[in-house]
Amino acid sequence: MTALLSMEDLTGGYGDADILMDVSLHVDADEIVAIVGPNGAGKSTAMKSVFGLLSIRSGKMLFDGDDITRWAPNRIVQRGICYVPQVDNIFREMSIHENLEMGGFLRKGDLSAAYDRVYTLFPDLKERRRTPAGSLSGGQRQMVAMGRALMLDPKLLLLDEPTAGLSPKYMEQIFQICRDVRDTGVAILLVEQHAKQALAFADRGYVLAAGRNRHEGSGADLLADREVAEMFLGG
Amino acid sequence: MELFELLNFYVIPGIVLGSIYALGAVGITLIFAILRYAHLAHGDLATFGAFVALACVTGMGIPPLAALPIAILVTAAIAVGIDKVFYEHLRDRPKIVTVMASLGIALMLRSVVQVVWGVDTQTYSRGIVRPEDYFGLRIRDRELYTVAALIFLVGGLQLFLTRSKWGKAMRAMSDNPNLALLSGIDNRKVVMLTWVIAGGLCAASGFFLGYNTEIKSMMGWHMLLPMFAAAILGGVGRVEGAVLGGLIVGIAEELSVLVIPSEYKAAMAFAILLFMLLVRPTGLLKGKVL
Question: Interface pTM (ipTM) of the complex?
């Protein structure tokens, strides 16, 4: 089976300075893949490169049979990749329901099936659908942000540090929701600061350091790897 | 002074003037919410709208109120055109560049008005209209139309912003521009829509100022400060705040005549603006975008 997303020897950055050097990774359909690594390793940059937010110097990005290396973000959205930024990822002044509606902006026709799917995944949101998203707690905001991204029915969801600043309880809840989302047929690529927890829950992981691939493997293997543990996970 | 005198000579004219300011202030607040700059040509765009209506009245012989929709449409189109020709190129530059450019547009619009229609004071209809008596309140029909237009236009705008897909897209763009782009909302269409609405409301504002007083080439420029004071007073980015702010500034200007010489009436808006910026810079209804 060919991978849903594959990044092949990607080099690029913002402007002239390259941040990523020959980074390769792939995500299969129905898989959760975590990118971890120390600060400044290029984790978020790697994710943004998928979404066309980077100037790419060499390498290729293939998604579901298309070469999307130099596509503009709006075209990538329509092709089936949705991106949830780490911060400012909701419309604060708008209600939860309106946030979802904006997520489905590009979809023609009836959105009710898409709303049902999101509200089934996030029952908490359904009860509070008229509430302005800005008044929610951090964990609920993250749910709104993910729900907004799911409205376009993507094949791949990109999550930039979805658990940043959340309590352990919410972190576990977000991870559980990620599993539920995967089980509905959406692949997930996420960047995490909380490397241990992320590797424990992801199907596979990549360790990046200084903009290069360092390790890859199943979450459990990476956690068991002594070098990974010593270098990046704090022993 | 008895109550009815106060109401008839100060409060009612204040509400009418406030409604006129409010129509302009709503446009200013929308432009600030979506494009993030102060549009200094707003007053002269209102003047332009008033003169378009005048051209319809004198050229086609239609009543002033029938000329209003035409003026709204023409001014909306001109506003979109000005954005496309002048402001669009400056979008990625610092906002102050666009603010200065809008000052240039203000001078340009005023000159066009002066060249085409002259510098003399004009009116939509001749003769003196006597006010009707409503249980002691003396109100002219045109004053009723002004307030009704404010309610109708702003009510319609609120429905559009809260119920329609593109109205919500405008709010989304004002709320979080990056996320709106990530969601696939077309920035250019939202900007165009903003100018259609702001331009149309501007024309209504200029028209009703001319309808209630006179039409002059400097009328809009003199309205600019009160309109900005109204937008800031209500909280920038808040449509309902701009309406509230407009009414407060209008009524305050009319009431100020009771305590200060009427030559200083225009300074009221400035005083309110200064006071508000010192005491509560986010405005009465807590602005969204400052």
Answer: 0.85
